[in-house]
Structure formats: C-alpha cells, structure tokens
Design brief:
Elements: E1 26-27, H1 32-37, E2 41-43, E3 46-48, H2 58-74, E4 76-79, E5 82-85, E6 88-94, E7 97-104, E8 109-115, H3 117-122, E9 124-134, E10 145-156, E11 162-169, E12 174-181, H4 183-186, E13 192-196, E14 199-206, H5 208-220, E15 226-235, H6 238-250, E16 254-264, H7 266-271, E17 277-279, E18 284-287, E19 291-292, E20 295-296, H8 308-318, H9 322-333, E21 340-341, H10 344-349
Parallel strand pairs: 14-15, 15-16, 16-17, 16-18
Antiparallel strand pairs: 1-3, 2-3, 4-5, 4-12, 6-7, 7-8, 8-9, 9-10, 10-11, 11-12, 13-14, 18-21, 19-20
Signal peptide: 1-22
Organism: Leptobacterium flavescens
Protein name: Alpha/beta hydrolase
C-alpha cells in the first residue's frame, strides 16, 4: 500500500464527512442582508453561494474538542473478545472505491474495509470485503503482512456512526471482529506528545487529540519551552489544528526540527506557530494544496471564504505580508494528492526558521 498518510487532507473524504466543501459561485446581491436572505455567505463584499462555514470560533473550541474527545472514547475494536481503543480511522478514496482504514493495538493491527462510494453515501446496512494486516501501515518503511480476510456487515447512519462485525479468516486462525466508530474519530488523529528529560516531542497525525495534548502540556508543564517535531504526517482536522497552533503561539512556545524530522501539510502549519523556530539541517518540510469536492484550492480566487481561516492563521504566525503569501505558495507548490519538500532556499525565503 502506498504511504498516502502524509498527504491526508479533505479531498479524500466524501462531501458528507468533509469540512472542505466549497463552490466557486457568487450571487448578484449588494449587501449582507440580501445575501443572507438567499442563503449565501457574505465575505469580502461578495455573496458566495453554496458555501458552508466550518470554522470554529475561539469561544467554542474547548467545548467542541471536549465533545469530540468523548465521542472518540466511545470508538473501539473487539478482536476475539479482547477490546482495544480505535487509534486511527479514516476513509480513503482509491480507484473508484472507498477504503475504511481502522488501526488499533499501537497501530500494529489494521483492518481495511473495501466498499463503493454509493454505499457510503447511501448508508444503512451493506456488506464490505475486509483485509486484516499486521504492521504499521502509516510508516512508509514498513510493509504490513496480510493475516486474514472476509466479508463484513456494515451499518452506517446519516451521522457517520458506524458499526462493523464479522469473521476474518486466515490460514491458521479465525478472528471474530467488531468495530464501533463515528465521525469524531476521523478527525481525532493519532499524535503523541511525550515529555522526556524536560523536553516535549510531537509525532504522528495531528487532529482533535493534538489540541487536547498541547493544552495539557501548557497547563501542566510550564517548564517546557519548546516542542520538537519528529515525524508528523499531516492533519486530519484542519479546523482544530489552526486552534492548536494558536494556543501554542499564545503560550509563547518554540518549535524545533531535528536532522531526521519529517513534517508535512498540517505539520508545517503547526510548526509555523512557534515563537522561535529552529530547523536542523536535513529536516524535511512538505507542503501541498488542499481540495474539496470536485475543486482544488488553487482553483478558488484568493478572496474566496474557504481561504479565510488559513490566511488569518498564517498572518498571525508569519506576519501580515509574508503569511498570506506563504499560504498561497503552498497551494501552488504541489497538488493535494502529492507533496513538495521545500528546499533550503525556500525555507529561508519564507522565514520558517526563526532563531
């Protein structure tokens, strides 16, 4: 399986479970009141049609995260009567089918459920072929080993609450399996923020849990001044990730990359929040565009409301002039399904290192 986790972004999700759904249409009205009456979104003096604002207000972020954390805790996997927390759950679209990726047991056990976009969109009860893999499918250096497979029964409601059960059969054993998941798990991420010897180290995929971890670090470890990013593959919840960066900056924390650090997409966004940012020679920083349903970010005009929160974020982190320009640079650097690793000259140009 290709390692696509570093480029996880909204384009991989169906419209029913994405926050990146955007349209490049405006209505011919002259004021916000008239725009609202036509169910439009008033922004930059224009009335944008079919745009849904998925941003989270500062006053709401803590309650939103707390509610999502509670839902995340409800998700679980049971294998031969042994229960595990569901550590990673994400739908990926590949060659006309949807693959639901579920990982547990410290990401060493993975089940891939294969179904059609039509089934996911329709919901209800349907069958899905499944494959049970041993080994970390997120790390590109590991090759997972198939140990079983079979047909599973999936029940999915309109809120993307999912239950899956069935038996996976291998050459030497069978595995009775059941899974419960929900939309909150998709945006949870699997990041780890560890404090060792007076320093903090961040790794994994960013999401809701990362905000919770950084907030806990700020509250309970005032002695920590720097977060070192090791392997950060990206973000599965950009709306929350922007707030994670905000509280990191407001707490006066610095960020650091080691010579073997590899960060991408939302990982670069979060790294940019450091008051001081140290990049050791050899570290890799990957950027790319994002995409929504049938449209990519670079196809949207710069005054489109879909850009507003990223523009505000990078303005805070990199300045009024450099911030917005860096954001639009990332959109042109590589398409959503690819990644561009910045050169030393590009890192210097965009002032990502700030000692």
């Amino acid at each position: 399986m290709k390692n696509k986790i570093i480029v996880l972004s909204c384009f991989l999700l169906m419209a029913m479970i994405t926050s990146c759904h955007s349209q490049n249409k405006t209505l011919k009205v002259t004021n916000s009141k008239e725009c609202n009456s036509k169910d439009g979104y008033w922004y930059q003096g224009k009335c944008w049609a079919e745009f849904e604002d998925e941003g989270i207000a500062v006053k709401d972020i803590d309650s939103v995260v707390q509610a999502q954390i509670q839902l995340i805790k409800q998700a679980s996997v049971k294998m031969n009567n042994k229960s595990y927390p569901l550590e990673f759950f994400f739908p990926e679209q590949d060659e006309g089918q949807i693959i639901l990726i579920a990982s547990f047991n410290k990401l060493q056990d993975n089940i891939l459920f294969f179904t059609s976009p039509k089934n996911v969109e329709k919901g209800g009860k349907f069958k899905a072929e499944a494959m049970y893999l041993k080994g970390n499918i997120i790390e590109k250096d590991e090759e997972p080993i198939p140990v079983g497979g079979g047909q599973m029964t999936v029940i999915m409601n309109d809120d993307f609450d999912i239950s899956i059960e069935g038996t996976l059969k291998g050459d030497t054993a069978s595995y009775d399996m059941s899974l419960k998941a929900n939309e909150a798990v998709i945006g949870a991420g699997n990041s780890e923020l560890q404090v060792r010897d007076g320093e903090a180290y961040l790794s994994g995929t960013l999401g809701t849990v990362t905000y919770h971890q950084v907030k806990d670090l700020i509250r309970n470890h005032p002695e920590i001044k720097t977060i070192t990013f090791t392997q950060v593959q990206g973000s599965v919840n950009d709306a929350v990730n922007l707030h994670t960066g905000r509280i990191l900056r407001e707490a006066g924390l610095n960020t650091k990359l080691l010579a073997n650090s590899n960060i991408a997409s939302g990982g670069v966004d979060l790294f940019a929040a450091g008051v001081k940012r140290h990049i050791t020679k050899g570290a890799k920083l990957g950027v790319h565009s994002w995409a929504g349903e049938n449209i990519t970010a670079d196809q949207l005009p710069e005054d489109h409301p879909a850009h507003q929160y990223q523009i505000a974020y990078f303005t805070q982190m990199l300045g009024k002039d450099l911030g917005p320009r860096f954001y639009f640079y990332t959109l042109s650097a590589a398409p959503a399904e690819d990644i561009h690793y910045m050169s030393e000259k590009e890192i210097e140009k965009w002032q990502l290192a700030r000692d």
